[in-house]
Write a structure and sequence with these properties.
By secondary structure, the chain is mainly α. The protein is built from 21 helices and four strands. It has helices at 2-12, 27-52, 56-73, 89-99, 101-104, 112-139, 141-147, 150-162, 165-172, 181-201, 212-226, 233-237, 254-264, 267-291, 303-320, 329-338, 343-356, 360-366, 371-395, 403-422, 442-459, and strands at 82-84, 325-327, 427-428, 440-441. The strands form two sheets. A two-stranded antiparallel sheet has the order 1-2. The longest helix has 28 residues, at 112-139.
Length: 468
């Protein structure tokens, strides 16, 4: 309450320099800052739903509710907004292609039979995240780093991004309508170049610098409209207010559990991402606290609690039928720019996402985005995911002259990327009763193999390599 009163008093005196996590801004500031947070997360969150053929409305609703629940779980100590995660797209596409092929390979925008399978995996992801969070709270992060060192997590991030190349290029060339391929490729590359230019030349420009994906999508959409690739029939017939498409997880489907483990194991790449976001936010928040003559918050010490909050978000989206979530670096950057870390603002943004999830016309309009535009955006975004894996290896100073590191990384890259692109259905033909009766997805197999090789080096101590 004292923090709230201090910030309100400072605002009245015109001396306000920002909001800390436990501050509550005046109503006008809270609404405007909250809408900025919503706008920042919207393009990527909606795009993941489009790529994986989840319902956009329920994805928005689940994102908002999941964010609010995660903030409450963290006792409003960790200011994060949760949107759809790109890391899960490759394995979700594998699930959709296997369990809902007729729907997923058609012009349909929503495939509920596949979504229900994926939901089980998202819920299992939540269980893993929560258990690991409690484990870190008990044993410390060093124990996790031994099992999942940067060479594993960084290599998996590279695999997750580059293994999606097939999906990105397929959308760019409009695999659902090959007769439109020439036009589609042109629109896709226009969208790609526009998005890259917005990303580079708008950086550091405040709010607009946070929205290159939105601006790139709009630019591509306009070109696609004049190229005859946009159809507004469904928008005209859509209701202004519509109930999002809730689905119940397919717990009673035996095939769901093998796929669930495949999906859940992607947390290997998302845990370091979430932790990096936490460290970044901790620096900014403590700097602002110092300027405001307040005690440091030291949220970097809450790694375990942060992962428990991540799991709480995934529990919500998993049960409702939204896309798997992650805390968004874009929103973190916006908080740094606006110097607003108020969890009240983030909860306001979450409430806005819930409301917009019921806006039928908006959902229908989002679903008119042509595959060509999605493909152009995806070429860039999926490549960035892969490059972030390389950045992780660099930032952690992984010694790639060490035979142990080379062994782990090379096996993960070849089995994950090569297997996903070249094997039938992206599966290694090793059948495991109940869990993987039809084979092991390449990305999951790569993770298993990388962890196994790293474990061998832990158990049977290998000589340390000298740095070059």
């Amino acid at each position: 309450m004292a923090a709230k009163n201090n910030s309100a008093s400072a605002a009245r005196q015109g001396k306000l320099i920002g909001f800390l996590p436990d501050d509550t801004p005046p109503i006008g500031a809270m609404l405007s800052l909250g809408f900025q947070q919503f706008l920042t997360m919207f393009p990527a969150t909606a795009l993941v739903a489009i790529l994986t053929k989840f319902d956009v409305g329920i994805t928005l609703l689940a994102s908002g509710l999941g964010t609010i629940i995660a903030l409450l779980v963290s006792q409003r100590k960790i200011p994060m907004y949760y949107g759809s995660s790109f890391s899960y797209i490759a394995v979700i596409i594998t699930v959709m292609s296997k369990f809902a092929p007729d729907c997923f390979n058609s012009a349909a925008v929503y495939c509920p039979e596949g979504v229900q399978i994926v939901q089980v995996g998202i819920i299992l992801t939540a269980v893993f995240e929560i258990l690991i969070g409690f484990l870190i709270m008990r044993l410390g992060k060093a124990a996790l780093d031994r099992v999942l060192p940067p060479i594993v997590t960084g290599s998996m991030a590279i695999v997750i991004g580059i293994a999606l190349a097939n999906a990105a290029l397929g959308n760019a060339g409009n695999w659902a309508a090959p007769e439109l391929a020439a036009t589609s490729w042109g629109v896709a590359f226009f969208t790609l170049i526009a998005t890259i230019l917005f990303s580079v030349y708008l950086q550091g420009k405040g709010l607009i610098g946070m929205l290159p994906i939105l601006f790139g999508a709009i630019a591509g959409y306009i070109v696609a409209y004049f190229a005859g690739l946009v159809n507004f029939n469904n928008v005209a017939s859509a209701a202004w207010v519509a109930l999002p498409k809730f689905t119940f997880p397919a717990f009673n489907n035996p095939a769901a559990w093998g796929m669930a483990l495949s999906i859940a194991l992607i947390f290997i790449a998302t845990v370091p991402e979430s932790t990096a976001h936490l460290y970044q936010m901790s620096l900014y928040i403590d700097e602002l606290a110092h300027e405001m003559k307040r005690k440091p918050y030291n949220i970097k010490e809450l790694i375990g609690l942060n992962l428990v909050a991540d799991g709480a978000d995934d529990l919500v989206v998993g049960f409702l039928g939204g896309c798997a979530g992650t805390n968004y670096g874009e929103n973190n950057s916006l908080m740094a720019i606006t110097r607003n870390y108020s969890t009240s603002v983030l909860m306001t943004a979450g409430a806005m996402a819930i409301v917009f999830g019921f806006f039928g016309k908006l959902v229908a309009l989002v679903n008119t985005i042509p595959a060509a535009v999605v493909g152009g955006l995806s070429i860039y975004l999926f490549g960035v995911i892969g490059m972030q894996g390389i950045a992780l290896l660099q930032s952690e100073k992984v010694n790639l002259f060490d035979p142990k590191q080379l062994a782990v990384g090379s096996v993960i890259l070849v089995c994950g990327i090569g297997g996903n692109l070249s094997l039938k259905d992206g599966m290694f033909p090793f059948q495991v009763p109940f869990l993987f009766p039809n084979g092991i997805p390449a990305i999951v197999f790569a993770a298993f193999l990388g962890i196994l090789i790293n474990t061998i080096f832990l158990v049977f101590k290998a000589p340390e390599a000298s740095k070059a």
